[in-house]
Amino acid sequence: MEQEAKVTQRKNPREGAGFLSIVFFWWMNPLLWKGYKKDLEMEDLYEARKQDESEYLGDKLEREWKKELEKAQLSKAGKRSEYKPSLTKAMIRTFGAFYAFLGIFTFIEECLIRIF
C-alpha cells in the first residue's frame, strides 16, 4: 500500500474575513484568481474550518435527528396521532438558518448587480 505525502494547506482566509467579505464571498477572490491563471493543486486549497468539517456537521445533524426520533417515540407513547421522523426537518433545523441568511444576501447582491 502506498503512503501519500501529507499536503500542507494554508489557513482558511474566511476565518479573518469581515462581515461583507463573508456575505458576498469576496474572501474567495484570491483562490478564484489563482484558479483562473493556472490549474489548482491541493497545496493551493485552504484547510477546512472546524465548523465545516464532516465530523462536526454530522454530530450536529445527528442531534437534530435524535430529536425527530424522540418526537416519534413521544407520539407513540401518548395518545396523539403518529409522528413520522423527518430527515428533511432535521436538516432544515441544522443548516436552514445559515443558508437562508447567506441566500438573502446573495439575492440582494445579484439584484444590485442587475440594477447597476
What can you see in these coordinates?
- With 116 residues, the protein is an all-alpha fold.
- The protein is 58% helix and 0% strand.
- It has helices spanning 19-23, 29-37, 54-77, 87-115.
- Helix 3 (54-77) packs across helix 4 (87-115).
- The mean pLDDT is 88.
What distinguishing features does this structure have?
116 residues, mainly alpha
How many strands, what sense, and barrel or not for the largest sheet? none
Task: Give the beta-strand count.
Answer: 0
Percentage of residues in DSSP E strands: under 5%
Q: Give the number of helices.
A: 4
The gross shape turns out to be flat
Low-confidence stretches: none
Task: State the helical fraction.
Answer: 55-70%
Oligomer: single chain
Question: What's the mean pLDDT score?
Answer: 88
SSE series = HHHH
- Structural class based on helices, strands and sheet pairing: mainly alpha
Q: TL;DR of this structure?
A:
It contains 4 helices and no strands.
Helices and strands in order:
Blueprint: H1 19-23, H2 29-37, H3 54-77, H4 87-115
Helix pairs in contact: 3-4
